[in-house]
Amino acid sequence: MSRDRKDTRLKTLEEYVKELSKTGKQLDVLKRVYSDSISKKIVLLDPSLPRDFIDYLGRGAYSLWLWTVATLVVTTIAAIVITSLIPGAIYIRYVLGSIAVLFLPGYVTVEALYPREEDLTPLERLALSIGLSLAIVPLIGLALNYTPWGIRLTPVTTVLAIYTIAVAIIASYRKYLELQKTL
After folding, report:
1. For the DUF1616 domain, which residue ranges apply (predicted)?
2. Is residue 112's pLDDT more than 90?
């Protein structure tokens, strides 16, 4: 569905393209639709929005980032287990561990704080993700230092995984609420 800012009547994207097709070639029409959506002259709406949060989580178009984060966390934990059994696979652990420590905690925090895509540019999201990770991980380590488990591989991995998944779910819920507001 598309909504023209001047005309508040809802039109399907197909109707909007047919209307524009009377004046130009197909490639020009597609460029116009793209530029109109970028400049906010029209608003493209999903005609079948998710009914509830569970439906939202099940649709890849909305929650692919969440499932990617969850997969990275699980893969990182698996890499830690595998490298204890196969010492030659340590480089996989280095790569995944770096992503899990230096990027993911900040990324999910940024997604929770700024659920709308328009709030930040991708470069701002990347910079804030790395910066927040560099702030969050030492705070988690400091908190772990005062627990009976201390700062060792297993507690740090466990707490970072729990933090990342929990904040990712919170961020996903906030994104769902923002999607509901667009109606």
Report:
1. 72-175
2. yes
Asked if residues 179 and 56 have their Cβ atoms less than 8 Å apart, the reply is yes
Number of structural domains (the chain) is 2
Instruction: Please check whether residues 84 and 145 belong to one and the same domain.
Output: yes
Residues 49 and 59: their CA atoms lie apart, in Å, by 10
Which range marks the domain in which residue 26 is found?
2-44
pLDDT score of 7: 52
Strand 10-11 vs strand 2-4: parallel, antiparallel, or unpaired?
A: antiparallel
- Which residues 6+ apart lie within 8 Å of 9 measured at CB? none
Q: CA 151, 153, 158, 160 torsion: positive or negative?
A: positive
Shared-domain flag, residues 25 and 59? no
81 with 40, same domain: the answer is no
Token pair for residue 134?
């560099």
How big is the chain by its Cα radius of gyration, in Å?
22
pLDDT for 69-95, tens place per residue? 999 999 999 999 998 888 788 999 999
Rounded to two decimals, the pTM is: 0.80
Per-residue model confidence as pLDDT tens digits over 123-167: 999 999 999 999 999 999 999 999 999 999 999 999 999 999 999
